[in-house]
Amino acid sequence: MKNNKFVAAVMVPACIYIFIFVIFPVLYGLGISFFDYNPASSTNPFLGLENYKRMFGDATFWLSLKNTVVFGIVALILNLIVTLFLAEIISLLPSKRLKTLFRTILFIPCIAPVVGTSMIWKHGIVATDGILNAILGKFGVPPHNWYLTEGALFLIIIVYTLWADLGYNVVLFSAGVENVPKDFEDAAAIDGAGPVQRFLYIKLPLMGRTFAFVAIMTMADYFQMFTQFNIFAPTGGRHNSAMVLTNYIYRTSFSNFDMGYASTLSAGLFVVVFAVAMIQNRMMRIDWGYE
Amino acid sequence: MREKKEKELVIYKKYHYIIIAFLSVFSMIMMYPMGWTMMTAFKTNADIRMNRTKFFPQEWSIDGFITAFEKAPIEKWFLNSVFITVVVTVAVIFTSTLIGYVFAKYEFRGKKVLFMLLLATMMIPGLVTMIPRYLMIQELHLFNTRWALIVPNLVGVFSVYLAKQFIEDIPNSLCEAAKIDGAGPLRIYWNVILPNMKPAIGAIGIFTAMREWNDYLNPLLMLNDIDKMTLPLGLVMFDGQRSVDLAATMAVATMIMLPMIVIFLIFQKQFIKGLTMSGIK
Question: Model pTM?
Fold first, then answer.
């Protein structure tokens, strides 16, 4: 249809709005990254590339970049293995009711706010007199203050994220697993392939497209996790061992009010996320479908 | 042959029991933290100090809830959260269906370029722009008001994309027929487009509402006064001030989680359908 008046009446305000609240902040942030910017101070001198030089020499930046990438990759791999396994065994169940029941239960942690569930883990599980120490105590491990550990706290945050985030991918993979034509499986079964073989060699390759999509979305998400790090390790944990880029940016801008430098760090995060997005795009173009 | 098939069925049955047993145990572990929270909210603090890991309360008490209501403006946090969630969700449903409708059903110059640009903005991670957005809210004098969380969130680019994809599947002939009957573009939108895209509206609404209700970063940046906070931010504040009072903190946590879980269990089918349809997270 054609109706230029109506199109203009909708699109002009829409474009202005999106420019102001989506595109302009990117340019604004990029601009600030060249200044020594503190909203409370009267002068905010232009620094040129000083902030960028500082970033490349900043050990905390590199550490938090490393932590961000390690978190993203480890959490992603664990998530994919566990959710694929769960989606597959749920799909083997005979009744539709049971399938829905288990998928619903697994989805519940995704519904609750990350703030709420992080708080629960903080007080109930990770606290010194929490469940984690109680369970380890049964095996003779003395109680730890996990907030003072380095690798362990990082691992706990990964496990928490796995717990909190399982349900989404189980649901998404379930759709993929159940879309694989039944004939293919039956043919393989007649040829003597067991359930594990059928899953690995028939189903998994056939749901490549779903797999790529889910992996990509999850990874993009994990590179930007903030809330659980802010709750479990608000100051980055011992020796910044649980500091990630998002929390480092938050701390630099809103605890130290060093907003110029924080904007430079944001540009760094942007490059990382953008690189991931580019890799994603490449992968998405590969045709994995079975149609 | 037949014998073999029957044998396989028996083996399959055995598998089922193992799978059901495994999933039941796994589900219990998954639900344990939630259950523990709700039980702890009904414990006394003396009870918690004695043994935090115990599941059921020694004696049931609603002191946690009473303290929570006395020491924190929970009803205000709740109303703030509801207000922001409702306004943003309604606005996003309206804007995304309207913009999606124009993209899907109207021809105009530069449409392709504009749509590509729109898609490109989805690649901008929200966290990267937190400083400029904070400064803009200051400039607009919206800082520390509910509008700071509403005004920047009235249009969701992903929702526009979702709506456009869905509206494209509504047959053009329906729109043309309405047009011949003398309907203007807004009438077509209201009478033809909206009634035919209920599943998409459901998905957009559910996920927008969930994102707003659970949002922590934006309220953390934009709100200062205790009375103006939303529930997630309020919980963190409350915990920081009264961390010894675990029963009360868990009472607040329960009150944040429960509404979403109840809504989810009611609309569970639409949730799962919407999630598979859109693949959004």
Answer: 0.88
